[in-house]
Prior knowledge:
globular; mainly alpha
Amino acid sequence: MSDYIPPFKITNEILSYVASISEKIGRISVVNNLAAKPHLRRNNRIKSIHSSLKIEANSLTLSQVRDVINGKFVLGEQKEIQEVKNAYAAYDKIKDIDPYSIKSLKEFHGIMARYVVSESGDFRQGEEGVFYGDACIFMCPPASFVPRQMEELFAWMNVHREDIHPLILSSIFHYEFVFIHPFSDGNGRMARLWHTAILSQWKSIFEYIPIESQVEKFQDDYYEAIARCHVQGESTIFIEFMLEQIDKILDEIAGQVSDGSEYMTEYLKRMLDVMEYDVPYTSVAIMEMLGLKSKETFRKNYMNPALKHNLVKMTLPDKPNSKNQRYIKF
């Protein structure tokens, strides 16, 4: 048995985040499980895929990613469109992932990199570096080291999966995986998918929590944390960074899953039912979907209460009367 141990420290900040995240997960589950909100689950998954690919320089917008997933024609690079299809296929089978199996890892890389990477599903044969833009953050271990390093990483995870909290273990794996860089391409996407898979085994709600979208918002900090860990020779800073982002995204999710029963009228319920998440609508478009003709009725019974209770947001909040104003359900 290998005596390999990924270097890291458990800090008070890490323990504080673990406690906070655990409490928020429990509260979200009690309030209203995401299982009861299929549109929200699907929307969050699309956000996960878009953000994870955007981090890797995929230029498709969120709307384009949604259209690709919905089978609509999208004008774009074939490689980028295929990346979306692959990522959706991989995330759609996340329940089938064994996050403690190298065989499962290679299988899902084969899905994630299908028709995009020649070495799909196989460890790299060449030398690689981790780049952010044109800047090389660090050079990865030689390709000849990869099989042994991956075996040691997975062996360590299997030994400690019961005594290291999944929130910490998944973050350690994420950093170590990026450092080893086992595949010729798609390592960032696989690291984030596997992070989610480990957490989903702990709490199934993580299957639909778009951690990737939070990371994408702080992409500079993400790569900086990786670089600092490489200099220090341990993953502590990266663990703290990832836990901070998970803690933040759960605040957003808590607002999404609140059922709002204390103020939800039949008018509001009807309007929200015809709107999709993250799709901008004009007031005229919403009125047409509702079959309304009176602008005053629409404002009084539908839009104003929705804005008041943060069920809908304006795309131009500083210009509420702009002719370019759009409304987004969130």
